[in-house]
Amino acid sequence: MTVRLDSAPNLRLNSYDPEAFNKLPSISDAVAKFDAIDGDSLVSTSFRELFLRHNMDRTFGLILLHRHFELDQNERLVSYGDTSVPWQLSKISKNIMPSNWLLSGDGAIRPYEFCYTPAMDEATGPNLANSDQQAFFDALIELLHKHKAEGLWGLCRYPGDGFPGRVEITEGRANINLRPEDYPKDMESRTAAWFFSPPLWDQKCNCGCRHQKWPSFKYPGVLEGQQATLTILISSMASTMAPSIKGFHPENIPGIVSDLRLNGTMASFCFGTADRPLSGKQCLIYAVQFPDGATWAVRVPAQANHLPPGAVTAFVEMEVSILKRIETSGFSRSPRLLGYNSGFDNPVGFPYIVSTWVEGTPAEWSDSIPSDRDTRNKFLRQMADITLELADCTQEWRPTTAGTYLTDLIDRKIVRVSNGQLPGIQLRDCFIQRALVPRVVHFPLEMSPFLVSHEDLSPDNIIVDNEYNIKGIIDWGFATLLPLQFAVYFPRILAIEPSQIDAPQPPDVAAFSLAFFQPSAVLQADRRYFTSYLSSRRDSLARSISLVLSTSDVDWRHLVFEAASSKGLHKWVAQRSWLLHGSGNGLQDLSSITLAKEVVKFLAGTVGQKSNLTRERILDAIKIEDDDLQR
What we know:
Layout: E1 12-13, H1 18-22, H2 27-36, H3 39-53, E2 60-64, E3 75-80, E4 83-88, E5 96-103, E6 108-116, H4 131-146, E7 153-157, E8 166-171, E9 174-178, E10 189-194, H5 198-202, E11 206-210, H6 253-261, E12 268-269, E13 278-279, E14 284-289, E15 295-300, H7 309-329, E16 337-341, E17 352-356, E18 361-362, H8 373-393, H9 402-418, H10 427-440, E19 450-453, E20 462-464, E21 470-473, E22 480-483, H11 484-487, H12 509-516, H13 521-536, H14 540-550, H15 554-562, H16 567-574, H17 595-604, H18 606-610, H19 615-622
Helix pairs in contact: 3-4, 8-13, 9-10, 10-15, 13-14
C-alpha cells in the first residue's frame, strides 16, 4: 500500500457534538453551493468512481450536509422507521447508533445523525482499524478539498440493495421520509443522498429533500379571526436562523429603515424575524414595524452570498428597476418600493430593498383547496384580471420579434456551452432546441410588445385575505421583460411543470411525454374557466393572451422556451427527447430535424459571427458529417 506524504495526518473518530449539527447549512444554502460547483457532475463522476474504486459502494452513501432546525445540548436527531425527531438521551440511551457522519479537512470524522436499532444490527459505520476504509477516508477528504466542497458532503449508512428511495419533508421539528408510493404528484425536491452500488445507481435510487423557491407557510400578519403563525409545511424552512455571513449585520436593519421614514420614530423587528427571517430562494425577509403600526419589509439577498459581489448588486438593481417600472405604470398589486442600497458599504453590510408589507397569507391552492368551485372561480377571475392589468400597464415596444429573442437566447447558450461554461449540457441538444423555435413561436404575435412577467406566480407569492381576495403579489426578484407570448403563460397554480427537475430519465420517454401533459380533471376545469373569462374580455390584449393559452401545445411551448435560460430544465427536457411525443404538434421524434441547417443559420447570425466558433469545431461536437452541410 502506497502512503502519500500529504495524506490526512490524523484520521480519527470524534464524539457527537450538537454544536457541529447546529452549524450545518440550511437546505437552501447547501443546494446553492451544490449548484455553484456543478455538484451533479461531480457526484456522477468523481465521487462515484471513488466509492467504486475503494469498494465502499455497499458500505456508505454520499449525503448533502444540511439541517432543518437546531438541537439543544442534550438532544440528538434520531430516526426510527420513517421519521427523525430530536431525542433526549437521558430518556432513551440504548440501541442508538450513528447513521450519518461529517468529515473535516484535518481528518476528523464525527457523527451528526443517529438511528434507533433495537435489533443492534452489525456495525457498518467508519472503522479506522480497517486499512481499506482508512484509504477511502483519506481519498474522500482529499477530493472534497480539491473541489472546495468541505462541509458540503458527508457519509451515510448504505441502506441495502432493496432500498426504494425516500423524499424527506419537515413538519415542525420532525423529518418525515415518504416512500415512493406516497409521493404527492406535485412534490418538488432536490436529491440529498446518493448510493453508488449497481442495484441502486442503475435505478437512480436516492433520497430527496423537498425544496421550493418559496416554501408554503403562514405569512406573518394578523387577519380578523386568525392568529399570526409560522407553520412550516416543508423541509426547506420558510423561517430560518439568520446566517452567519462575514460583514452582514442584520441588527442594523431597524436603524436604516427608521432613517427612511424621516419623522424620528424608531422601527423594531416584528413577527420574530430578528432571529428567524423569512426565507426565499435568494433573499432573507425581515419585517419591521413602527409605533403607529406601519409595517415594512426588508429583503436582503444574503442567500446569494456564494455569488460575486457584482452579481448580487446586479440582482438587487434588476429587482429595483422592475419595482420602479411597475409602480410608475400604475399596477396596483405589487409592494411599493421605499428605499434600497445595492452596494455592500452600508450599516447592514449587504445590499437590501425596503418595501411596504402586504397583509394577508399566501394562497393555499391544490386540487382540493379551496374545495368549492365558487371560491376557486373567484380567485381565478382575480388572477386573470391581474394578468391583464400587468400586461396592460407594462407594455413596451421593441424592434425585436419573439422568434429572434428566443433564438438569441439559445445562440448565447451555444457559445457558453462551447466554451465549457455550462457543464452537463450537450451542444447537440442546443441545436435541437434551436430547430424547435419555429414550432414554439406564435407567428401572428411575432411583432407584439414586451411585457413584465413575474416569473414565479406560485401560491406562496399570492397574498390573500381569509375570503380569498387577493391583496398583493410579492417577490419580484425574478421578474423580467419578455415578448408578450412568452410573458403570459398560465400562473403556476395552473401550470404543468416537472415535479423534480433532477429526476432520472424515464424508461419509456414516449409514454412519459404523453402522460406528462395530461392535467387532472380539476386542473382542466380551472384552466377552462380562466381562459373563458379572459376570452369574455373584448380588448385586443385579452384576445392575444387567449390565443397563447388556448393552443393545445401551450405547455410544451412554454417548457421549451423556459429551457432556453434554465440549465436544469434544459437537461430535463433534453433527456426526454424534448417531450415531442406529448407536444401534440405533429413532430413525433427528432429524425426530421436537420441540425446541419441550424449550424449554417447560427454561424450566419449575429451571435454566431461574434463567437469565433468554427464550422469544424461545431460539427465535431454535435457529431454530424461535413457533407450534411451541403444538403
